Amino acid sequence: MILNKFKALAADFDGDFFYDHTMRTLYATDASAYREMPLAVAMPRSVHDLKKLIAFAHENRTSLIPRTAGTSLAGQVVGNGIVVDVSRHFTKIIEVNKEEHWVRVQPGVVRDELNFHLRKNELYFGPETSTANRAMIGGMVGNNSCGSNSVVYGSTRDHLLEIKALLSDGSEAIFSAISKADFFDKCRLDEPVESISLESRIYRNAYELLANPLNREQIEKEFPKKSINRRNTGYAIDLLMDTSPFDESKEDFNFCRLIAGSEGTLAFITEIKLHVN
Q: For a disulfide at 75, which of 32, 85, 145, 260, Cβ 3.0-4.6 Å?
């Protein structure tokens, strides 16, 4: 049954879709010591392909595992779902703004190749890894990569301005810094939850979670100290709590703070906007 579904999906796929034993075995490991055979391997060519994969995964109750270079050491891109390798086709540096110090890229851009491209504009993306000549920006966002110069340049989260992504229902969303007023517009608190979009439900859930005093108390008690620069021990919801919708902070709410370090579990990233020095 599943083989027939794979054949139908592959026939309607612009990129490459594999479910043979050899390709599955190749993608059963990453740079870690872990190994798990995936259900299939997809190399999407477009956002349209990604939407087809999301619909397929939803219909067949499986998962999608976003993958770029596979250089992480903790098995982040190993799993029994469909591995989605964006390193082949999502490799464009879309836009560089020298005056405003930002760049927009697809997740499959290699970190060192990005800096080579930025050099002519006298710009530089600081966070690095020991595998910077092959590690890709999408993976660096997922891992919140820091590197040996993190004391100077910070982590990838510190440079993440905006993310364009697909949600679990296939809808497109753009996450960036938004004002307090815009945050509550997104929540649509005066409308029934069943009538609002998934994006609005995500904002509303964040509000209901972080506006609750008991939740805030537990977060403050249990989360690592903010003096620890790289706290990749879970979702960074404490950073969202310290924004304008929830206290007197002047910092705008930005879901990018949560997506960084989430290892591809919250949304499927298609474009990334980064601050560059």
A: 32
Q: Are 105 and 236 in contact (CB under 8 A)?
A: no
Distances in Å between the alpha carbon of 170 and those of 51, 244, 266? 5, 29, 12
DSSP letters of 54-113? HHHHHHHT--EEEESS---SS-TT--SSEEEE-TTT---EEEEETTTTEEEE-TT-BHHH
Residues 6+ apart with CB under 8 A from 194: none
Residues 27 and 66 sit within 8 Å (Cβ to Cβ):
no
pLDDT digits (tens, 9 = 90+) for 155-190: 999 999 999 999 999 999 999 999 999 999 999 999
- Please answer whether residues 96 and 121 qualify as being in contact, where contact means their C-beta atoms are separated by less than 8 angstroms: yes
User: Distance of CA 253 to CAs 3, 23, 232, Å?
Assistant: 44, 41, 20
Beta strands in the chain (DSSP E): 16-18, 40-43, 64-67, 82-85, 93-97, 102-105, 160-166, 172-176, 268-275
3-class state of residue 263 by DSSP: coil
Phi then psi for residue 166, to 5 deg, are -105, 135
DSSP state of 259: H
Burial of 256 (0-12, 13-18, 19+ CB in 10 A): buried
Residues 195-224 have pLDDT tens digits of: 999 999 999 999 999 999 999 999 999 988
Nearest Cα neighbor of 68 from 148, 132, 149, 162 is 132
The residues, any chain, with a CB within 8 Å of residue 255's CB and separated by 6 or more, are: 163, 175, 202, 206, 240
Longest C-alpha distance within the chain, in Å? 56
* pLDDT on residue 150: 78
How are beta strands 102-105 and 268-275 bridged, if at all? antiparallel
